[in-house]
């Protein structure tokens, strides 16, 4: 009897697959699991790194916006107070009797002396603004020296023989400097190295906005304690931004192209040509064009008058150096266009309804 052997393969366990040898995997073989390859791990790590970077970047961006907005919010009341005090000083100066020494000084060497007194009035208002809003300890301290060592208080000397006796602002007409000197004395006499210009200008402005002018006075406490600090430990507090960096105050910012171009007057108009609102009729420009020697002294010690085409449009301005902490501006607020100024926050933009940054 011929018997055929059964060559059929045994039934495979449910779900099992043949191995490479054609047999079914054993229990121990089935327990082995395939792991991640190195490439797969690197891909996952890379994806996680990208997600982390995006998240951190978004967080820092939100924080940066918040800090910029906080700085804008704290600058608004200061800028408003500055505009009010500035206007009040101008109003008072226009009502005062201009000292005879001013007439003598501006007409000295002028081929066409000012007969109307209007130039003298403009110069007097500028000097009053300079006195009311100092930007350095040197200005405040120099006004108190005997004899004074800072324009417009200094008296005639070998290097400046044309100055009138008693200075351009006579001693009996000086309003603010004694008060400022008392308030800033700690920093002025500090044995530490001279403080940065922005620190000094901010401390000076904090003091300058406290006297009552026409019923207006800014108490630093109303700005907020976190925005009034002594960052250089010289005994004088300054206005600081949300980055704890002192604001910088520019009294006569004649070098900033953006500010100058923001003059809303129509091109070719008188208001555009003579953009200095204290001198709307251009007396300073014509004084300079006549070649009067003391017009140059004025430009050297007070501010530049024009750019050769039109008078500078200027507003007293506060500037925050932004999150990079680098101001990058010249003494006249000129912007050289470097990478330090891109995040600056300017108060003059607030007056036009725009953001400062």
List the helices and strands and how they pair.
Layout: H1 27-30, H2 38-95, H3 100-107, H4 118-132, H5 137-144, H6 177-188, H7 197-208, H8 220-223, E1 228-229, E2 238-239, E3 248-250, H9 257-261, H10 270-273, H11 283-289, H12 293-301, E4 317-320, E5 345-346
Antiparallel strand pairs: 1-2, 3-4, 4-5
Helix pairs in contact: 2-4, 5-6
Account of the 3D structure:
The chain is mainly α and 357 residues long. The chain contains twelve helices and five strands. α2 crosses α4 and α5 (137-144) crosses α6. It starts with 26 loop residues before the first helix and ends in an 11-residue tail after the last strand. The model has no long low-confidence stretch (mean pLDDT 87).
- Side by side, the strands of the main sheet go 3-4-5
Give the SSE string: HHHHHHHHEEEHHHHEE
Fraction of residues in β-strands: under 5%
**Structure classification:** mainly alpha
Terminal-residue CA separation: 105 Å
Shape label: elongated
Number of strands: 5
Computed CA radius of gyration, to the nearest angstrom: 35 Å
Brief descriptors of the model:
mainly alpha; elongated; two-stranded antiparallel sheet; 41% helix; 3-stranded antiparallel β-sheet; 357 residues
What is shown here, in short?
With 357 residues, the protein is mainly alpha-helical. It has 12 helices and 5 strands. The model has no long low-confidence stretch (mean pLDDT 87).
